[in-house]
Design brief:
19 strands; seven-stranded mixed β-sheet; alpha/beta; D-Amino Acid Oxidase, Chain A, domain 2; FAD/NAD(P)-binding domain; six-stranded mixed β-sheet; Lycopene beta-cyclase; 427 residues; globular; single chain
Length: 427
């Protein structure tokens, strides 16, 4: 599957220059150099949005691994301990060793990957607005991408395959739809306030909404600097003033930060849904990232999944074979993981499970490395069984029993956040 004609590089277009698009481009370049020896097997064009409303602002991505990883130069901070705090103030200290919870800022990540692409003889990044993707009019296998350059002038690109990371126009029909929505402040305090070795993953010492759950999230960057967020899992977004009130209460009444300055802000929403995202529009046009179902429904984590997805696509394209087969569209999550997420989302949405207690107990009763593998979608069936037996069995079984009989309905008015503000992104 390496070229349209013998000896010619395989022409690929990647739409979107966020985590999913750049990660796939990076995996292709790495496979081209490290796995396949000399010569260029791929011709890679990344199309990212020009300056304007479609271009993402700087954002934060977090994940865990045992490092050093492929993006070590872009890691902004890392933590060897995680804290989960219940509504009553009970703390669970989780040590994920040998893994660490790591933060990458999009600006550093993009700079690193673009430098790698610039060093490849047949890779490039274009700034343009993609208008549509269609089959090639000449009847040859592949796609034609119609786009406008930053000056508004139209142009087309022909490629064998297009991998599209743009957000979908709407969410797919689902039985359960929640939103993980948040607003965060990058704060600088007037004196040291933070333990730089520990991250507060979930702090439930905030007022809980009538539906869903809420928590604080603190990632220390220095003794006097941190990203502090207020997050909800619920059906409705808040107004900016409501997020601001929640953050003021959390930083003042719960954390007791004293004097501080807000140096930057980020806000976004991530769909938490058991809807089935279509990964393929046509044999040559595939969706990746959140648009391709890479966001873990019950947690919002995506960065690790887009790495698995990108690596699988690059590996498939590197294998010898006819170039006329459909583009690879690997599933970013196992069916078993998605089924468990559907049950948990239903239990949370109906209120059968107390969200703060569920997550606090999950970390208290289960070895941290097993919880992280479960959240990342890489746990074994035995580990999942053990975790399941430590959950509220009755409410979970009731939710599982009713799911097959629930219709999948459209979610009117709910659209995935643009990557500029997404914890796709953030997680």
């Amino acid at each position: 599957m390496r070229s349209d004609k013998e000896g010619e590089p395989l022409a690929l277009v990647i739409i979107g220059g966020g985590a999913a698009g750049l990660s796939l481009a990076d995996w292709l370049v790495r496979y081209d150099r490290e796995e396949l020896g000399p010569g260029s097997r791929f011709d890679v064009t990344v199309i990212e949005a020009p300056e304007g409303p479609l271009r993402p602002a700087a954002r934060t991505w977090c994940f865990w691994d045992d490092g050093p990883g492929a993006y070590e130069e872009a890691v902004t901070a890392q933590w060897s301990r995680l804290r989960i705090t219940g509504p009553d103030g009970e703390r669970v200290e989780a040590v994920p060793g040998p893994s660490r919870y790591r933060m990458v800022r999009s600006t550093s990540f993009e700079e690193l990957v673009r430098a790698r692409l610039a060093a490849h003889p047949r890779a490039r990044v274009l700034r343009a607005t993609v208008r549509r993707v269609q089959a090639r009019p000449d009847g040859r296998p592949g796609v034609r991408v119609h786009a406008d350059d930053p000056a508004g002038l139209p142009f087309v690109l022909d490629a064998r395959y297009a991998f599209d990371s743009r957000p979908p126009a709407g969410l797919p029909p689902a039985r359960t739809v929640l939103l993980q929505h948040f607003r965060g402040w990058f704060v600088r305090t007037d004196r040291p306030r933070f333990d730089t070795g520990s991250a507060d993953l979930m702090d439930f010492r905030v007022p809980q909404p009538a539906h869903g759950l809420a928590f604080g999230y603190v990632l220390p960057l220095a003794p006097d600097r941190a990203l502090v967020e207020y997050t909800e899992f619920s059906r409705r977004l808040l107004t900016v003033p409501a997020y601001e009130r929640a953050l003021r209460a959390y930083t003042g009444e719960v954390l007791g930060l004293g004097g501080f300055a807000v140096e930057d802000v980020e806000q976004g929403a991530i769909p938490m849904t058991d809807g089935r995202f279509a990964r393929r529009t046509s044999p040559a046009h595939v969706h990746i990232g959140t648009a391709g179902g890479a966001t873990r429904p019950a947690t919002g984590y995506t960065f690790a999944a887009v790495q698995r997805q990108g690596r699988a696509i690059a590996a498939a394209l590197s294998r010898p074979g006819t170039p006329h087969r459909p583009a690879p569209a690997p599933a970013p999550h196992r069916r078993r993981a998605l089924a468990m997420d559907a049950v948990l989302l239903r239990a949370l949405d109906t209120g059968r499970v107390d969200g703060p207690r569920f997550f606090t107990d999950l970390f208290r009763r289960t070895p941290t490395e097993q919880v992280l593998r479960f959240l990342d979608g890489t746990s074994t069936p035995l580990e999942e069984l053990r975790i399941g037996l430590r959950c509220p069995v009755g409410p979970m079984l009731r939710s599982a029993a009713e799911l097959p009989f629930l219709p999948r309905r459209a979610a009117p008015g709910i659209r995935p956040a643009h990557p500029a503000n997404s914890r796709e992104d953030h997680r």
